[in-house]
Design a protein that fits this description.
heterodimer; A: mainly alpha; B: about 700 residues; alpha+beta; three-stranded antiparallel β-sheet
């Protein structure tokens, strides 16, 4: 219970720092000084102090969308084993439910984008939903591959079994599933090469086009929820394929502290790697993205086949 | 069955009732026979509604017939729930039909479908009171609707082949009458009716052939008799294939689905709801009843065939839905998808049962039945809401809708609820059944053979892809149809529906919410329905602690109620927390970002077609969208253009490849045959003479 609360607080407070870290890594590698790791928190503070805006012609869906996005992000944070495998919410939602909750958040934002009635909103929503529709099967198949060995799709069970049997990580099933999930996480969080989080060019943007009309506290909520989603997904990748340091049920304060540090290191390293990769890569053309996702879908299918034939 | 009829001539009506304990009680009024009594009451109310519709004047006809039909639906729900609870009932009415009589019986499996049909009928009938007041209050339509409901109640209660076939045909004819109810308004209705009539009767013919053969090899017409008989493998294969083709066409399964996206949109909306939420289920019921129950399972390849048909339908249906821009057509395609998902569950159940894992088979079948129930709830809601939109705006074209959020607030909210359920996202009800279905497939690997290893990942991939595309479909339907600003005249002048229509939708919406939050209440009943068919031992799904679903032999758990509760708690938190830090200033209205080019118009909005364009492009190998550009130059000059017209449509490829050649062949044959009939009486007399002589010669040779 304490572990779960600690995990939520850590992710909620640390997610903007992760985004700051990634921007800083990019800046340094591109030869800029960068704004510092704390900049996202400063941005959030600034946005929260501004007044909320109701663009003409928008309604309750537009105002509900950021709230729903943030709420799903929070629930997912409480479910996924990042600091502890003994979250009280572990039996409530399994990996399928986590995927679906994340999709619910994306859907809410897409509807918010459509509700504005602008071409940008519609375009962003259409592209986001297209990517989402193609990401969904890949995630579910890699969940399938990971759950075969354990006989359960509950995240706590999967992570615990990997902790008990560390060699399982270097099996082909695990490797294929890890690559698949990495591609999917990049697509889901809108990073290069699927989407560029720092673009505002109408021909290329996906996520930014949807949220173009949001301002003030609403925008703060969206930015913050997006940072949480990125953190949770990177943390999940870490927990599934490098579950060391995670506190088991009934762990003492020292174990929890170790778990917190391990999480910070894992997510930080993964984030820095992702940022470094983005420096050397350009965004894909929109209609090349399905090819990337089809490739990852194929790998997920291979992972499932491998999990059967190598079992 | 106890109290067997010994002398058919003596007894006119004999109804026996067997409660769970086994002591036989005869009679209608006995409380122990409440399932049977409510069932008979439901049928009687349907007949009363039909009579009332024929007798009463037009002004009060919709209200009276609708109220009686709704009461009949409620009685059917009671009968179905009692049957699921374990009360069985059977009746033999030997004088009602010549030769074989009518045999009725209720068991838990039939009870599930009976209750679903009844519940859909309640919503549709209440909704119909307001919906049919203008233009649809004629005697024929008002009387056909209760008869259609009665026929659908009879199908799952039929306990002999002849009764089943009569009920099936009655259902087809009554629904056909309702489909063509608006034929004088639109030419498309007539065409849809023709497609439906032909397809449903071809389906009936193969079911008739299959079931007649089944009765013949079993030496009896009653289902009890057939269960005991063991037909030879070849006969069983033929019977299963024939009946499966017929039932699949009723369930809108690819490639026999072509009537569905025509007939469901063109029917009046409450009829669309009945057809799409209740009638298609009868196809599933038929497959389960004949394949798993009467034929007792059969070889694995039957069920792999069912699974493949289901997977193909799920993918093809949702791909057509995602590019459809007609709201009701989109919902029709989504029905094909959902029936495909159900058949994946049924196929998996049969396959597991054939390979000996009874627990998994029971789980897959429970998932399939739960999806039937969930689909009925949200599809009723969606079709009724689409009917309200049609009623208010006069159009079903998503490209001309939009901006209904302020004009029809209740309908918008209810459609959103249905769309959430249909896109299988938590906390909607569709998520629970898809989760169960995925669990039954995912966990079959360790004990299965190579066939499992090939089929199950593909099936999971298909379900996952269709789930993703369903999200896109319903984001489009809701986002483009109801949000933003109106794109057409009709949508701009829309108004909220009358209270009876809202009432019907509210009931369906309440059912969706109840199913989403407390699916645990249904599971014991479903487990009972399933155990009678696949013979599983114990409950495949149990409920533990705070409404958590726990599966037999699988360590995965989920709690729909708690997910919803935590989501609400998180919503409250994110609503409250920023308030503490944020500036307490009122929300300010502002212009939308229009690139500085002046006010935005509705023509600049994304439409349903443009929304689906990227997905259409991703799947263009499958969908083969067609587009062409007509350029009309001015008369004076070839260089000045008067008009440029762009057409884009996504044709149904299966229809084009499979049906159009056959239809063209018939047309050619028909034209060729006109030469035989040129109007000359002498020629016709000669035909008669030659035919008679030919027959006589043939007889002479044969005898």
């Amino acid at each position: 219970m304490i572990g779960a609360i600690l995990q939520v607080v850590l992710v909620v407070a640390g997610a903007p720092l992760l985004v700051g870290l990634m921007r800083q890594v990019r800046a340094r590698m591109e030869g800029r000084a960068g704004a510092g790791v704390l900049q996202p928190w400063r941005d959030l503070r600034k946005l929260l102090r501004k007044e909320a805006i109701n663009p003409h012609g928008t309604g309750w869906v537009f105002r509900l969308a950021p709230l729903l996005l943030a709420a799903t992000a929070l629930v997912v944070t409480a479910v996924v084993p990042l600091v502890t495998t003994a979250s009280p919410l572990d039996g409530v939602a399994d990996l399928f439910a986590v995927t679906a909750l994340l999709a619910l958040g994306s859907v809410a934002l897409a509807l918010g984008g459509l509700d504005t009635g602008t071409a940008f909103g519609g375009m962003g929503a259409s592209r986001e939903v297209t990517v989402l529709a193609l990401v969904e099967p890949t995630i579910l198949l890699s969940v399938f591959a990971l759950s075969v060995r354990v006989g359960s799709t509950n995240l706590g069970a999967i992570v615990t079994s990997t902790v008990n049997d560390p060699l399982a990580v270097i099996s082909p099933v695990s490797a294929l599933a890890a690559v698949t999930l990495a591609v999917v996480i990049i697509a889901e969080t809108g990073r290069i090469p699927v989407d560029n989080p720092s673009t505002h060019l109408e021909l290329t943007m996906i996520h930014e086009a949807m949220v173009l009309e949001y301002a003030g506290p609403d925008l703060a909520l969206i930015e913050w929820a997006s940072a949480i989603r990125l953190t949770v997904l990177l943390g999940l990748l870490g927990s599934l394929f490098a579950p060391w340091g995670i506190a088991a049920a009934g762990a003492g304060p020292v174990a929890l502290l170790v778990a917190v540090l391990a999480l910070a290191v894992k997510v930080g390293v993964l984030g820095a790697l992702l940022a470094a990769g983005e420096v050397f890569m350009a965004k894909l053309r929109l209609f090349r993205i399905p090819e990337l996702l089809a490739g990852s879908f194929l790998m997920a299918l291979l992972a499932v086949a491998a999990s059967f034939f190598l079992a | 069955m106890t109290g067997i009829v010994t002398d058919a001539a003596m007894s006119t009506t004999l109804i026996t009732s067997v409660p769970g304990t086994g002591s036989a009680v005869t009679g209608l009024a006995d409380p122990a026979g409440a399932a049977g009594a409510s069932f008979v009451l439901a049928l009687a109310l349907c007949l009363a509604a039909a009579l009332v519709a024929l007798v009463l004047p037009g002004r009060i006809r919709p209200a009276a017939a609708g109220a009686l039909t709704a009461a009949a639906g409620a009685a059917a729900v009671v009968a179905g729930v009692r049957a699921v609870a374990g009360e069985t009932w059977s009746a033999w009415l030997p004088d009602l039909l010549p030769l074989l009589g009518v045999r009725l019986g209720l068991d838990p499996l039939g009870g599930v479908f009976l209750a679903v049909t009844g519940a859909v009928a309640v919503c549709a009938a209440i909704y119909g009171i307001g919906y049919t007041r203008h233009g649809l209050s004629g005697r024929g339509v008002q009387a056909a609707l209760p008869l259609f409901v009665a026929a659908m109640l009879l199908v799952p209660a039929a306990a002999s082949v002849s009764t089943f076939l009569v009920a099936w045909e009655l259902m087809a004819i009554a629904s056909l009458l309702l489909v063509v109810a608006e034929h004088h308004k639109r030419a498309a209705v007539g065409e849809a009716g023709l497609w439906y009539a032909v397809m449903t009767h071809l389906g009936f013919a193969v079911i008739l052939a299959g079931l007649a053969a089944l009765a013949a090899v079993s030496g009896g017409d009653a289902f009890d008799r057939i269960r005991e008989a063991t037909p030879s493998a070849a006969a069983a294969n033929l019977i299963f294939l024939a009946t499966f083709a017929g039932f699949a066409s009723k369930a809108g399964i690819v490639p026999l689905h072509v009537w569905l996206p025509r007939a469901h949109p063109e029917a009046p909306s409450q009829v669309s709801a009945l057809m799409s939420a209740a009638m298609v289920n009868m196809g599933v019921y038929g497959v389960v009843r004949v394949g798993l129950d009467l034929l007792g399972g059969g070889p694995a390849w039957w069920w792999l065939l069912v699974l493949a048909a289901g997977a193909l339908s799920a993918l093809y249906g949702i791909l057509q839905a995602v590019v459809a821009s007609d709201l009701k057509r989109l919902l029709g395609h989504s029905t094909t998808e959902n029936m495909g998902l159900v058949l994946i569950g049924v196929g998996a159940a049969g396959f597991f049962a054939a390979s000996g894992s009874r627990v998994l088979a029971a789980l897959a079948l429970v998932a399939a039945l739960l999806h039937v129930i969930n689909h009925a709830a949200f599809k009723t809601l969606l079709f009724l809401a689409a009917g309200s939109v049609l009623h208010a705006t006069g159009t079903r074209d998503l490209d001309a809708l939009g901006g209904l959020r302020e004009r029809m607030p209740y309908t918008t909210g209810l459609f959103a609820l249905g769309a959430l359920a249909a896109s299988a996202l938590p906390p909607g009800n569709g998520f629970v059944s898809e989760w169960l279905l995925l669990q039954s497939l995912v966990n079959s690997l360790p004990e299965g053979g190579v066939a499992h290893a090939v089929t199950m990942p593909l099936a999971v991939g298909v379900i996952a892809l269709s789930a993703g595309l369903a999200i896109a479909t319903f984001v489009k339907a809701f986002g483009v149809g109801f949000l933003a600003r109106p794109r057409g005249e009709g949508a701009a002048n829309a108004h909220e529906s009358p209270p009876t229509m809202l009432g019907g939708m509210l009931l369906a919406g309440a059912a969706c919410v109840a199913l989403a939050l407390a699916p645990t209440l249904l599971l014991p009943g479903l487990a009972r329905a399933v155990s009678g068919v696949v013979g599983g031992t114990g409950d495949p799904v149990t409920v533990a602690g705070a409404a958590t679903l726990r599966l037999e032999g699988i360590a995965s758990t989920i709690s729909p109620l708690l997910i919803a509760a935590w989501l609400v708690a998180a919503l409250v938190l994110v609503l409250a927390l920023p308030r503490l830090f944020a500036a307490r200033r009122a929300r300010r209205a502002a212009r939308l970002w229009d690139c500085g080019a002046g006010p935005m118009t509705a023509r600049m909005e994304y439409t349903a077609t443009s929304f689906a364009e990227p997905l259409g492009r991703v799947f263009d190998d499958v969908l083969e969208p067609e587009s062409d550009i007509d350029v009309t130059p001015l008369k004076e000059s070839a260089y000045l253009v008067e008009r440029v017209r762009f057409h884009a449509r996504v044709p149904d490829r299966i229809e084009r490849r499979l049906y159009e050649p056959v239809l063209a062949g018939f047309a050619v044959a028909g034209r060729a045959a006109t030469r035989l009939a040129n109007g000359s009486v002498h020629r016709y007399l000669a035909y008669g003479f030659y035919a008679l002589t030919g027959a006589l010669i043939l007889l002479a040779v044969l005898t």
